[in-house]
Specification:
Helix 1 packs parallel to helix 3 and helix 4 (about 155-160) runs parallel beside helix 5 (about 180-190). Helix content is about 20%, strand content about 30%. Strands 1, 2, 3, 4, 5, 6 and 15 form a seven-stranded mixed β-sheet that branches. A six-stranded mixed β-sheet has the order 7-8-9-10-13-14, with helices on one face. A two-stranded antiparallel sheet has the order 11-12. The protein is an alpha/beta fold. Strand 3, helix 3 (about 70-80) and strand 4 form a beta-alpha-beta unit. The protein has helices spanning about 20-25, 50-55, 70-80, 155-160, 180-190; strands at about 1-10, 35, 60, 85-95, 95-105, 110-115, 135-140, 140-145, 165-170, 195, 200-205, 210, 215-220, 225-230, 235-245, 250, 255. The structure holds acetamide. Acetamide binds near residues 174 and 175.
């Protein structure tokens, strides 16, 4: 049996104050933590006025250039702390802009997920993710990433789970109130852990006020809320999770994978 300390970090970023937002978020990561998840777009804030503004704050994660300042800081933080850090960043790749989640390993390597299901005004800013739902080996387990509104498409968590994810990291800037409860079901129906890291506070940079719903949480494969925060506070919800076995026995007589009947589904 493998034990991992995992942490959902909940912040209140100030739009455009990238360095400050990064330092505040990193300051919440507990000593000895194996896996820490930060919110979506945690360094920039959420409500960009237009694509150009987002482009100016985005970082290149795959090109030949030196990584941007937030990326460099996250690489250093993972190396110094020994923590695998998952963080939401605006990513530029040539002319394209993605709402991405990046997994930083302590050894200096990183992996990318690009948000597939864009929410409302994000569609005017970002390109839908083009990498599917990959999984990665990190901190002794298999990690999948999805971002915020991906929660409403059960295919996202299902794809990650079928690919072998044991923990789903879920950086978020949640606006709708239903995700936290829905993630309990996502965990049960896939028998995975999920770490949803949300932000708090409001932004109104376009004439539309957005209020973020907090309530970050770590949920077990049986749907237990192992650790959580409330809707207004900033901080960390940390817990130790036991990665017991790879099987999907929901009851002694029901293996979730063996009992699936794909031939009966109309997808
Ligand atoms: C969202 O997907 N940030 C609501």
């Amino acid at each position: 049996m493998k034990s991992l300390t995992v942490a959902a970090i909940q912040t209140h970023p100030e739009f455009g104050h990238l360095e400050q937002n990064v330092e505040v978020a990193l300051g919440f990561i507990p000593d000895g933590c194996d896996l820490a998840v930060l919110p979506e777009l945690f360094n920039t804030g959420y409500q960009f006025k237009n694509r150009g503004e987002a482009f100016g704050m985005a970082e290149d994660l795959t090109g030949d250039q030196e990584p941007g300042p937030s990326t460099r800081r996250l690489i250093r933080a993972a190396a110094e702390s020994g923590t695998t850090i998952v963080a939401g960043l605006a990513e530029k790749d040539g002319d394209r802009l993605f709402n991405s989640s990046v997994l930083f390993r302590p050894d200096g390597t990183w992996e990318i997920y690009r948000k597939v299901h864009l929410f409302m005004d994000e569609k005017a800013i970002f390109t839908p993710g083009d990498l599917g739902f990959p999984v990665f080996e990190a901190c002794g387990t298999t990690i999948g990433m999805m971002i915020c509104f991906d929660w409403i498409f059960p295919e996202a968590a299902r794809s990650l789970s079928l690919a072998g994810a044991e923990i789903i990291c879920h950086p978020s800037n949640l606006l709708l109130p239903w995700c936290q409860a829905a993630m309990v079901t996502r965990c049960q129906e896939n028998m995975v852990f999920a770490v949803t890291s949300n932000r708090v506070g409001s932004e109104n940079r376009t004439g539309t006020e957005l209020t973020f719903s907090g309530r970050s949480q770590v949920v077990s494969p049986l749907g237990e809320r192992l650790a959580g925060l409330d809707k207004d506070e900033t901080g960390v919800a940390a817990t130790t999770v036991e990665l017991v076995e790879k099987d999907k026995l929901f009851t002694p007589g029901n293996d979730l994978w063996k009992d699936r009947r794909p031939g009966s589904y109309r997808l």
